[in-house]
Amino acid sequence: MSRKIKSYSDGLLFVTTTAQFKKWHLPHDAAFLKDLVEGLTTNYNRYGYFLCPCRDGTGVREKDKDIICPCTYCVSDQQDYGHCFCGLFLTPEFFAAGKSPQSIPERRPLDRILG
Fold first, then answer.
1. pTM of the entire structure?
2. What is the pLDDT of residues 46-76, one digit of tens each?
3. What 3-state DSSP class applies to 25?
4. Domain over 8-113 is classified CATH 3.90.460.10
5. Would you kindly state where each structural domain of the chain is located, as residue ranges?
6. How far is CA 63 from CA 21, 26, 75, 80, 105, in A?
């Protein structure tokens, strides 16, 4: 059985719905948001799940489960930096301050990154 190919609109609906449900915000920068949603959508069509667009996955759901969006590290990153690793999901405070996401340290253990 083949899965339905997701469109950009499907990916945008996923991130918008997730943000609303979690009471998070999406980035102010429309071009940046577009790049992230395109990456998520590409990963869904490649792997069958919304894999973090800023990390490399294996294509094996069990090995990638910690980086399926929103990833396991999202809330910890938000607590420490105001946004997740990708900069896709922002805390209300970070968003209200008008800040832009910046590069933050990777929390994913090295053994998970190397497979």
1. 0.94
2. 999 999 999 999 999 999 999 999 999 999 9
3. strand
4. yes
5. 8-113
6. 26, 27, 20, 25, 21
